[in-house]
Amino acid sequence: MPELPEVETIRSQLERELKGKKIIDVEIKVLKLVRAPLLTFKKAIVGAKIEDVRRRAKLLIFCLSNGYSLLIHLKLTGQLIIKNEKDQAEKYTHIIFYFSDDSKLFFNDLRKFGYIKSVKPNELDSELAKEKFGPEPLKKSFTLKKFKELITNRKITKIKPLLMDQTFIAGIGNLYAAEICFYAGVRPTKPACLLKQGEIKRLYKGIKIILRNAIKKGGSSVDTYIDTRGRQGSFVPFLRVYDRKGKPCFKCNCKVKMISLAGRGTYFCPKCQK
User: Fold this and answer.
1) Residue 227 is part of which domain span?
2) Which of 32, 141, 211, 218 would bridge with 233, disulfide CB 3.0–4.6 Å?
3) Domain at 40, CATH number
4) pLDDT for 155-198, tens place per residue?
5) Structure pTM?
6) Residue 126 contacts by C-beta under 8 Å, 6 or more apart in sequence?
């Protein structure tokens, strides 16, 4: 699933390319991807301009000129690709947005788990509140003090599943949680209540550094992720443990291990992470 760096990469590109454009039509090939009656959905967005593109956790938010908002979640295999007027729909293109300058936005989704939802004016905050998202890790308000407070309130949980809990911190998934734990030298199975102050500080630092560096590289393409121009992210060569089972650790040469933790494949170095 695209995580914060991938979704933020897409958000910034969409904002740069689509801001100010008018939606003149939308073609929906797979109805289940739209969480609203078709006519209601079209009425909410057709004729409106895109005024801003925001992100909350892994959700993309199009703020429209008529007060409505458009929420898009890519889930496991969703892609948003900007095309020109001559480009044709692809095999897994399920929704197409048409703009007044003849450009298009394709919503592709191999697994069809993603979704799009229109939100009425003045209801965006309440809609997002339902998700109970935790703080945004790259905001200035997400301080070390705040992180320590969050850890204190979730003592029993093992640290890697905790980092992936969207009500704890927004936007971190399996890949970056593994990398953050490695950066901090913390075993992913370690309970939060056993973390030392130095480990908490390193985890906090790792969250900030790894997510920012991943955004600079356009995210990590380990599966189907591509940006709005069809390009892969370039952060994969910088991954230290994720998807490296049996390969030597870059620090100590010990073989990277993989276990199942909270239903997800979890990679770590048994020597560097205690």
Assistant:
1) 144-268
2) 218
3) 3.20.190.10
4) 779 999 999 999 999 999 999 999 999 999 999 999 999 999 99
5) 0.96
6) none
